[in-house]
Write a structure and sequence with these properties.
Blueprint: H1 8-52, E1 55-56, E2 59-60, H2 63-70, H3 72-103, H4 108-121, H5 127-137, H6 142-149, H7 161-180, H8 189-197, H9 202-230, H10 234-240, H11 247-256, H12 263-289, H13 292-298
Antiparallel strand pairs: 1-2
Helix pairs in contact: 1-12, 2-12, 3-7, 3-9, 4-7, 5-10, 7-9, 9-12, 11-12
InterPro entries: MetI-like, MetI-like_sf
Subcellular location: Cell membrane
Membrane topology: Multi-pass membrane protein
Length: about 300
Amino acid sequence: MSSSVLSPSASRTAKPTTSVWLKRIKPAIWLVPFALFFYLFQLAPMIWVLFNSFIYDGEFALDNYIEVLDSAFMLQAFGNSLWLSVWSSIFGLVIATLLVSSLRRVDTKLRDAVIAFTNMSSNFAGVPLSFAFIIILGTNGAITLLLKQYGLLGDFDLYGKWGLLAIYIYFQIPLAVLLLYPAFDALSDDWQAAAALLGARTAQYWAKVALPVLSPALFGTFIILIANAIGAYASVYALTSGNYNVITIRIASLVSGDLFLEPNLAAAISVILMALLAFITVINQWLIAKSYAAKKSRK
């Protein structure tokens, strides 16, 4: 009769192996709730939208996409959304760049106060923001009546595209400031002083030194601003009661409408919107790869 007995050295070897395995798997276990949450609220809806976008009258077909691309009304919604998104992102990025550049030159307490206010105002969007703009710049708004007395406002309409653009720019600026603020740490004050000693003007310093260094952050922020604007819904709906033709209003009306309930058509619009954002992101990555900072990092 033979019996196998583990030697003390073998048992000591097995325990550390088990301990190492547990240390490796413990972080993965903590990620399980996050992975489940990500699947339920990100991947699963995306898969559902992608699959149902090809369902038309109970059959697998491309008719939903054909209907969207053949509809002048839907194409107008895409055009309006892109117009608002691109221009609000450009204005928001320019204003935020100037603001962050100025913040680097002020007192620390004032800088912290401005950043705290910016962080707070970045959450001021949707229905409260629309209501605030109606009070200030609506048809009988306080500033509207004041400026019209001096003939400064003209035919400004808060409920048209220019009014929506003003609201979009307002909620784009705080997000752009928060995204760009850390990126400006890459700039050294000595660089501008050195450029000035070499005879460079401020505009030349920004064109030849600062903007090339900041270009990855600027491009990345621009893409995030476009995605933020093109997905805006509450502000537009609260301000125009759903009467302005943007793509988020069209998707919502197709999903929640009483008379025209077409979730599969809404899914097709959503897929086209995702493809459009993916294309913009690819262009952004290509521009970043061609930027000065990327070329310098490869050297």
